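== Polypeptide entry ==
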Amino acid sequence: MTTIKCNYRIVLVTILFILSGVAWGADAPVLLSQKGCSNCHDLNGPPAATIAEVLKRKAPDLFYAGSKFQEQWLVDYLQHPIQLRPAGTVYLNHIKTNTKGQDEVSEVPGCESRLTQEEAVAVAQHLMTLKDANMETGVVTLGKFSKARARKVFSKDEGCNGCHRIQLRARVITGGVSCPDLFNAGDRLNPDWVFSVIKDPQYWDPKAWMPVRNLDDATVLLLTQFLMSQKEKPENQK
């Protein structure tokens, strides 16, 4: 009898948990509005078609968030937002000339929204449903690769570090600030999306500053593996 009661309680708790998750998911669009997320992020698309539209962009597009991000990272970020773009979403809007006549980045406003854990789970689950149906999935299989060659391609051959910051040896973070940081790309991004955006940045954002590199798939895979190895903390410290 005791065993039956215990099993009943487990089943009941499980059902309540599932039902509460459904309720959270149903409230996610409301939360996105209440928290002001939809005031800055485009949740519907399509992407900006003109430079004038790009310059009005306050925050990254999220209408393909489910293709781009990892769900657990979204849950953490929504509770504790961090600065991912040192020069802002559109760096041209945050450049000023100092007294020496040099361009420098002005103070970039951060995200002021803070969600509870329950809210973050609900919103993250909802965002993960916003996917690009045409993006190929299962393209990237992570495994061993030459980090030395990947660093050379990323930094010297293609000059990606002119715009993006990454981690080098001894966990030194270095690179440009005009585009999103990549030193936590392995925690944040979906590898299939990374592969896709390296191959064709303008598919995701027609007015993206990032150029098409015309790289072969093997090199794109190498860069993807390198970026997915970029994590904020070593695995044994997580």
Confidence is low (pLDDT under 50) at residues 1-6, 10-25, 234-238. The two ends are 42 Å apart (CA to CA). The longest helix spans residues 2-34. The beta strands are 95-97, 103-105, 165-167, 173-175.
